[in-house]
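As a warm-up, study this chain.
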Amino acid sequence: MESRKAKIKMAVTLLALVGLLGLLILVMVSYPVGAQEAAEPSIEELRRGKNFIATKVYSAEEDQEILKLFEGLRVSDVSDGMDKVGLHNIGLMSPEIHAAWKDTEHYTHRFVGIAVTARYVPTNKPPAPHMETKDFDRWVSNWYNTISSSAFSPLIRKGTALVFDDAPDAEAGSIGSNNIMGWRVRGCVGVVTNATARDTDEIATEKIPLYFRKHGRGIKPGRNELESVNRPIVCGNVLVEPGDVIVADGDGVIVVPRAHAKEVAEYARATLDGDKAGRRKLYEKLGLPPDDSVK
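Now compare it with the structure written out below.
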């Protein structure tokens, strides 16, 4: 009798041990040994430089679906939508970032786009000494091609909004009437920078939407360097991540985090529709002909 009880007890113990072992194996598979350590960068990784905010990648089709939701929306409508989703005063760039030109008839200075970002930093390289023209031209060409290039250009596609974190006091005209047209050809709908642009008379004539801090007259060589492309940046005191929605008009620029874009757009659309309906009635009472703002 005792022997039988002992056998039963041993069997129960063995079953418990097998269950515990199985649970341990499951935990080890779900959370491998060393997983916590692997998640933390090594000293070598940190020393080489490491980014901690991942760049999310979206397809062209996904971008177009989002852009359709924002079509025709104003900064004020989108700001209301941001409030609705709990992002009060989030995404609104500093008023210093303003339209380089305005069209108050058809509002062609407005745009909605998907962010492609670039960061330029002030150079600490010495300026070019006085040299012969051919040597100077070679120096300028090397700077544009290798030190302060437009490496982001291949990322531009239909609906792209270029957003730059540049060297605001470097007097570097990173944006000019020539390259902005090249970006337009690739599909760029508008450009935003926290720094400068030059050739602004021509840019206004070309009717390419540009939002900037101030005019810059110098060239990039000897003034700034390209630090990164399509990484999170700060522009107008706002975090801009690649893939975010950029909305710009005469009121300024607002950045909508991609994760909240659909809900923001839905509320903003209702806001705009209500505003247009109300103003159309007032136009009728005042005898004003309808314009693009109420159509």
